[in-house]
Write a structure and sequence with these properties.
The protein is 61% helix and 7% strand. The longest helix is centred in the middle third of the chain and has 22 residues. The chain is elongated and about 65 Å long. It has a two-stranded antiparallel ribbon. With 61 residues, the protein is mainly α. A hairpin with a 5-residue loop joins β1 and β2.
């Protein structure tokens, strides 16, 4: 085991992700965010959230 990285199965050092892995990860995160945004801003989810908030504000203690 090296001081700066762990040994990879091929005998080299694994020092983290490469630029292409960061790019793929960033694209996947952006795609997931876009899908999540579309779901949360859809009519059914918006009305459910509004009714949930309305019920919470109208609750009697």
């Amino acid at each position: 085991m090296s001081r700066f990285g762990r040994s990879a199965p091929g005998g080299g050092l694994d020092r983290g992700m490469t630029t292409s892995e960061y790019a793929v990860g960033t694209i996947a995160a952006c795609a997931f965010a876009a899908v999540l945004y579309k779901v949360v801003t859809s009519g059914a989810v918006m009305s459910a959230l509004q009714s949930l908030i309305k019920e919470a504000l109208d609750a009697k203690f």
